[in-house]
Specification:
The chain is of the alpha+beta class. Helix content is 19%, strand content 23%.
Length: 121
């Protein structure tokens, strides 16, 4: 019986360890990356961590995704020199912690609220 204790202890320890899995978050859930969605309300119910990914789904040509680097660019809907993603199924891996900002730079999408800010832990 004493010989089985180490095996039982290892099993109990292993069961108590939290396993972290990367999550692919579809931005806007079933509504996708489209106008009329409150993306910040959507994000408020999520916990984003390094290794997760954001998936932006939209009709190709109707919108795009631009990651901007500063809150001022986000607030002013300024995409600067950033190259937009345009596939309609854009996947952005979250490789570092901290705030991340995304906008659609097509026409007045961003001004109408098609933008997202998240904090990656």
């Amino acid at each position: 019986m004493a010989k089985s204790f180490p095996l039982v202890a290892i099993f109990v320890f292993a069961m108590g360890v939290n396993v972290c899995y990367a999550v692919d978050y579809i931005v806007g859930d079933s509504a996708g990356w489209n106008p009329g969605v409150d993306f910040n309300a959507w994000a408020a119910s999520k916990t984003f961590t390094v290794r997760d990914s954001l998936v932006f789904r939209y009709t190709k040509g109707a919108h795009n995704v631009v990651q901007v680097n500063q809150i001022s660019d986000y607030a002013n809907c300024y995409s600067g020199q950033s190259v937009p993603l345009t596939s309609g199924n854009d996947v952005i891996p979250l490789r570092s912690s901290g705030p991340k900002y995304f906008i659609s730079s097509v026409k007045d999408d961003c001004a109408k609220g098609q933008k997202l800010t998240i904090n990656v832990k």
